[in-house]
Amino acid sequence: MSVAAATINKFTNFSNWFDELLFQARIADSRFPVKGFIVYLENGMFILEMIRRRLEELLVETGHKTMMFPLVTTDELFGKEAEHIKGFSSEVFVIERAGDKQLEKKLIVRPTSETIIYPMFKLWIRSHADLPLKVHQTVNVYRYETKATRPLYRAREFPWNEAHTAHATAADAEQQVREAIEIYSKVLRELGISYLLLKRPDFDKFAGAKYSIAFDAWNPDGKVNQVATVHNLGRNFSKVFEIEFEQKDGSRALVYQLCYGFGLSRVLAALISQHGDDRGCVFPPSVAPVQVVIVPIPFKGYEEAIASYCKKIHERLARVYRCVMDDREDVTPGEKFYHWEMLGVPVRVEVGPKEVSSNKVTLFRRDTLERVEVDLESLEAQVEELMRKIFTSLRERSSRMMERLIVEAQTPDEVKKALSERKIARIEWCGKEDCAIKLKEYAGGEIRGSRFDVAEVPQKSCIVCGERAQEVVYVAKAY
Amino acid sequence: MSVAAATINKFTNFSNWFDELLFQARIADSRFPVKGFIVYLENGMFILEMIRRRLEELLVETGHKTMMFPLVTTDELFGKEAEHIKGFSSEVFVIERAGDKQLEKKLIVRPTSETIIYPMFKLWIRSHADLPLKVHQTVNVYRYETKATRPLYRAREFPWNEAHTAHATAADAEQQVREAIEIYSKVLRELGISYLLLKRPDFDKFAGAKYSIAFDAWNPDGKVNQVATVHNLGRNFSKVFEIEFEQKDGSRALVYQLCYGFGLSRVLAALISQHGDDRGCVFPPSVAPVQVVIVPIPFKGYEEAIASYCKKIHERLARVYRCVMDDREDVTPGEKFYHWEMLGVPVRVEVGPKEVSSNKVTLFRRDTLERVEVDLESLEAQVEELMRKIFTSLRERSSRMMERLIVEAQTPDEVKKALSERKIARIEWCGKEDCAIKLKEYAGGEIRGSRFDVAEVPQKSCIVCGERAQEVVYVAKAY
Q: Any idea which of A2-11, B104-113, B381-390 has the lowest mean pLDDT?
C-alpha cells in the first residue's frame, strides 16, 4: 500500500481503500482484460483454501458427500422450473459453438447447479433408504452481471460452495435448514465475521424456492454483503425433475429439497472489510497466510547476537505457526513493519539488543497495534494466548460495529438519512411488496428481511403505508 | 460390482471392467445428459483431493504461487501465438451470448491457460528481480473432443493442475524442466504408478512449445495414458505477449517460459487401472478413502465378546487411519468382504471367536488377498508395516507389468503384432514424420517419443525406411 493509500479510511472511502488493498496484499488483481473476471493471487487463494477446507470438513462430518458436477446444462434442463429460469435466464452465458462447429444443443454455463444436479438425483434416488441425500461441491459459477462489478463482491465468475439435499418429509427439510444455518454460522463465527441472519421477503427469495434465509454481513460503506444463503425448495424442483422415492408403505412420493450456497469470495471480502484498518489487512490467526513475522532490530555490535537469538525463536515458532523471519538487510525495520502490517500478519516478534540481553521478546499485535514484552522461556504459550486474544477482539469489534450500524427508523426520511450515513435501518413493515418498492425508490435501500434467529415482534405500523405492521425488517443497500 | 462384472478381467475386457468399476466404487457417474461431461462421486473426489494436495504441497515448497485465473480469454489473446491457436482452435468452446444479449467480444473457454495467464505476466514482470516467476492453479479445462470420450481418460471437461513459469535465461528454463519432472515423478512414485518419461517427437509437441516431455502411464488395454506433460516454450509466447524484463545491465530481454500440466483425472484413471484387479479397486494406503475396514465374523454365543473386541480395535485404529467398522447386522461377512474389496480398501481386520479367545486379529491384505494373524498388542505396528508392504508391492507389480508390456519390434509387422497383443513396441526410427505416419497407418500406433530419463542409443536402422536410425522410440496407441 502506498503511503498515500495508507491514509485512506475504510469507512469514508471504502472503494479506494479496498481496491488498493486487494492488490497490495496480494489478494487479487482486477486488471484481467475481460470485464467482471479477476485473478486471485497467492494470499487470496490461501485464505479461500483455508475457508473451503473448514467448510467442507463440517459438511462432510454432517453427511454431505463431496462431488463435482459439470459446468454446463442443456437449455431443456435449465428451463424446467418456471420461476428458476425467469430468475436466471437473462444472466447466463451460453455456448453455441465449438471451434467453428455449431453445437447440436446449446449449453448453459452454470449460474448455480440445480438444473445440473437434479437430473442425477432422479437417477440416484429410488427409495426412502436413499434419503436424506446430501451432496456438495466447491466450484466457480458464472453470472452475466449488468450492475457494476467489484472484485470479490460482485463478479461474473465467483467461487462458492453449493450444497443440495433431498428429504422424505417437509419436517426433515425444515430440520435441514437448521443444520445448514448451523454449519455456515460456525464457519463465519470462527472467522469473526458479523452478519444479520434474515428471512428474505417473499419477492426477494431464490428463484424457485419456497423461502430463503440469508447471511448479510455488514460492510464499511453501509451496503450489506450477502455471504451465504439457505433455500427451502419445497417440492418445486422435485415436481419438474420427477425426483420420486418409494415410501415405507410402498407408495411413491416426491422428495423435499434444499439448496444452500456459501460465497467464498464474499466471505473473503467480509474478512478484509470487517477486520481491516487504515494500515491494511488484519487477518484472524486461523486463516492468516503468515501468522507470525520475526523482525530483528539491528544495533551496532549486537548483529550476531540478535541474528542467532532470532534464529532460535524462528525455529521454535515455525514448529507451530506459519512463521516468517524477515532478515532482509537492505530494508529498514520500519519498512518491514509497514509491509507485514499491510499483509495482516496477526503477531510480530521484535528483537533488539534489549530483548537479547534480558532474555525477552517484544510481541506486537496487529489488531490493537499494542506491544507487550514477554519472557523468551514462555514464548509459545504467550503467542498462543495472544492469538486467542486477537481473535476474540476482532470478533467482538466486528460485532459491536454491526450493532452500531443498525439504527431505528420511524419514517422513510429517517431511512434515507440512515442509509446516507452508511447505516442499516430497522423498520416496521406491512409486508406488501408495493411499500418495499416505494421505500426503495425514495430511500434507495432494499428490505432485506426479518431476523430468522431472533423473534422480533412489530409494535406499530408500516412506516410507508401506515397500516398495521407485520414484520420488523432491515433496510440496506446491498452488493 | 455385480457378480457378473466380477468375472470381467481388466486385461481382456478393459472397457467393461473400468466402466462398471467407476460407478460401483463411487468414483464417477457417466450418465450425465451432456456428452463428454461426467459427475465425480465421493470416492473419486476424495482421491483427486488427496493427489491435488500432495502435488500443490510440492509446488508451493518449490516456490510456485497458488493462483486462480479466469475461465475465459478473448479471441484476440487466444489468437496471438500462431502455432498455439492452430493446435487448439478447432476444439475450444465459444461463448458469444449472455441471456439474449450478443456479447461485444466473444469469449473462448480455456482449453489450457497460456493466453489467460501471460497477459498478467506482462503486467507483473518488470525486472530480473521478478524472476523466476512460478505460478500454478488447479482448475477444470474444456476441450471439444471429437474422438470417442471415456470417463477420466478423455472428456470434454477435466480437472488438472497447470503451472506456468518465466525465467531470465534459457539455462534457468532448462533447469526448471528438471524441477517440474522431479515434482511430477515424486507424486506418481508415491502413488505407485509406472510410466515412460518420453520426449515427444517434434511433430507431436505442445502447440507453441520448443519441445515437450510427457509421462505416459501403461494401461491394461495397451493404450498409453498421458498423465502429465512438461513443455519448454522457449520465447515463443513471451515474444507475442511481450513479456520483457530489465536485465542487470539495464537492457531489456524477453523471458524464457515453461508450462506443465498434471492431469488429475488421468492419474486417478491410472491408479484404478494399474492397481485394480478382478475384484475391483486396489488403492495405495496413502490415498484410499477408507484405509482399514473392521468386519466382525459373528458366532453364536460370542456376539458380545466379538462386538466389544471390535470396538476396541476400531478406537485404536481410527486414531491413525481412515477406519470403518462394518457392523451391519443384515449383511453377511462374505457380502461385506465383497463390498470393501471392490472399493479398494487396503487392509481388512477380521475378528471371530478364535481371534477374541487368543488375543489376536486376522489382517487381510487387498493386494495379494493373503491373510496373516497378528497379536492384538502390536496391532498398530503390524498394520503400519502391512500398509508399507502393500504400497511397495503395488508399485513393484505395476513396474514389472510395464517392463513386460514393452517389446522390441524389428519390423512394422512386429509393431502391429505387439499392438494387437496390447503391448508397447520399442523400435529404432530415423526421426522423419513421414515414417511415423506410414507406421501409424500400417500398425495403428503412434510414435510417442524417446526416453528422456535414460539415454538409449540406436544401433541399427529405421524399421520403416531402413535409413540410419536416430532414436529409439516407443510406439503405442494412446488415449
A: A2-11
**Looking at chain A, which residue has its C-alpha nearest residue B103?**
A93
Closest chain B residue to the Cα of A37, Cα to Cα: B70
Assess B23–A contact: CB distance below 8 Å, yes or no.
no
| CB proximity B407 to A under 8 Å | no
Domains A3-273 and A292-388 share a fold: no
The radius of gyration of chain A's CA atoms, rounded to the nearest angstrom, is 25
Identify the pLDDT of residue A148. Answer: 84
CATH 3.10.180.10 fits B292-386, yes or no: no
Inter-chain CB proximity B67 and A39 less than 8 Å: yes
Q: What's the rounded Cα separation, in Å, for the pair B140 and B151?
A: 14
Q: Which fold has domain A3-273?
A: BirA Bifunctional Protein; domain 2 (3.30.930)
Share of chain B above pLDDT 70, in %: 99
Question: How far off is chain B from A119, nearest CA to CA, in Å?
Answer: 8
Quick one: angle between helices B264-275 and B379-405, nearest 10? 90
Work out the pLDDT band at B7, boundaries 50, 70, 90: low
Per-residue confidence (pLDDT) for residue A7, from 0 to 100: 61
Could B123 and A68 be called an inter-chain contact, meaning their C-beta atoms sit closer than 8 Å?
no
Chain A residues with CB under 8 Å of B123 CB are 29, 31
C-alpha to C-alpha distance for B200 and B467, rounded to whole angstroms: 21
The CATH architecture annotation of domain B3-275 reads 2-Layer Sandwich (3.30)
Q: Considering only the top CATH level, what class is A405-476?
A: alpha beta
Relative orientation angle of helices A303-318 and A379-405, to the nearest 10 degrees? 70
User: Which three-class secondary structure string do you get for B85-132?
Assistant: HHHHHHHCEEEEEECCEEEEEEEEECCCCHHHHHHHHHHHCCEHHHCC
Look at B68 and A144 and tell me if their CB atoms are within 8 Å. Answer: no
Q: What is the ipTM of this complex?
A: 0.96
A98 closest CB neighbour out of B93, B98, B99: B93
Closest to B99 (Cβ–Cβ): which among A29, A74, A89?
A89
pLDDT at A448 over 70: yes
Structure confidence by residue, pLDDT tens digits, B203-258: 999 999 999 999 999 999 999 999 999 999 999 999 999 999 999 999 999 999 99
Give the closest residue to B17 by CA, choosing from B28, B30, B7, B32: B7
CB B42 to CB A71 under 8 A? no
When CB atoms are compared, the residue of B42, B67, B142 closest to A67 is B42
Q: Where are the domains of chain A?
A: 3-273, 292-388, 405-476
Asked whether the beta carbons of B428 and B458 are under 8 A apart, the reply is yes
Compare all CA atoms of chain B with the CA of A60 and give the residue at the minimum distance.
Answer: B42
Which residues of chain A from 94 to 113 reach within 8 Å of chain B, CB to CB?
A: 94-101, 105, 107, 109
Parallel, antiparallel or unpaired: strands A211-217 and A471-476? unpaired
Q: Which fold has domain A292-388?
A: Rossmann fold (3.40.50)
